[in-house]
Amino acid sequence: MKMKKYTAATMVEAMKRVRMDFGDDAVILSSNVVKTKGFLGLFKKKSVEVVAGFDEPTKTYAAPVRDDSAQTSFIESRVSVEMKKEMLEMKKMLKTMQYSTNTDLSSFPNDMQPLLAHLQQQDISLAYVTQLGEALFSEMKSQKRDFTLDEQKEFIRHSIIKTIGNLPFGGISFTKKYINVLGPTGVGKTTTIAKVAARALLEQKKKVGFITTDTYRIAAIEQLRTYANLLQAPVEIAYNSADFAKAIEKLADRDLIFIDTAGRNYKEQKYVDDLSNLIDFSLDMESYLVLSMTSKENDMRTIIQQFNAFPIEKFIFTKMDETDSIGPLFNLMNEYKIGTAYYTDGQEVPEDITEATLEKLVSILLAGVPHA
Fold first, then answer.
1. 113: part of which helix (H) or strand (E)?
2. Can you name the residues that pair with 347 across neighbouring β-strands?
3. Contact 332, 315 (CB under 8 A)
4. What does the pLDDT look like over 51-83, one tens digit per residue?
5. Residue pair 103/120 in contact by the 8 Å Cβ criterion
6. Are the beta carbons of 320 and 293 closer than 8 angstroms?
7. What is the pLDDT of residues 17-34, one digit of tens each?
8. Angle between helices 68-101 and 11-22 (to 10 degrees)
């Protein structure tokens, strides 16, 4: 077989050249869209690359037929075939891309799809959506009947609770004196501390005090002092470990001492090490990691991994009112086996904070599921 490669601006032009060289019996072995460099190596241009083949006959091949209508028909036919091939390849590629980011719901009954699609839209991990879907489908098969949407939601509710129901939920225990609040910059640690401290003062009649290690930002110190003045509570500033020890002594008469750590880029290990050298984690302490629901899940995961050397009791999730999906909250709890203490949904102190229960969080997750 004789083979030849053609490069042309369009498929039509390439097929004309194939037709002129090999006639009607040419076989298209491959076709690709390629990019070639333009002026000074810049401005890449798209072109079509075709490899054609022809089995030589025993006699010399005659000159090409110059029937313009037949030639046009041949070209259109070949172009149509090639275009169909390319369209099929594109569809396959798009389908593969879709499956890489979405669970294929077609394997589940139509009545289940709205609920599973809702879980996907809430950014529950694909593996977990599939796991829940398979469990629900198996239960319906065992009962030999379809479930109503409410029954499906109730089954999913129980399945999630079964998965992470053994994790700790709820606010501070009031059994430990030191409440350490960790987290990166911009997640709302100081406001969250003020909310929890205000609840402890107003509802539990606890004497509270504050230590701030956020000496990098004057505004952060002033913000905490403003909240402390409203609560008539003392504030101590710790620039180093010696200052921290002195602050502990000064606040010895307090029932609860809230520690506001510096908001830094804790993706960098240096800042994590600085924190471990400053705070005495051997104290009778509860540590909470604050994460913003507006952050990317992978960024939150990186922060958690950076803090894995610290004894994190529970998560605190902020800015719940600024997102339409809370799936990452469940993904992170399930992955790291850490429960949730509070979630916040506004800036008002002390109103916009809720002590977390798994039942409340699942109810938020399952709210607004559309009917099929």
1. helix 113-121
2. none
3. yes
4. 777 665 544 444 454 555 555 455 555 555 565
5. yes
6. yes
7. 877 887 766 666 666 666
8. 130
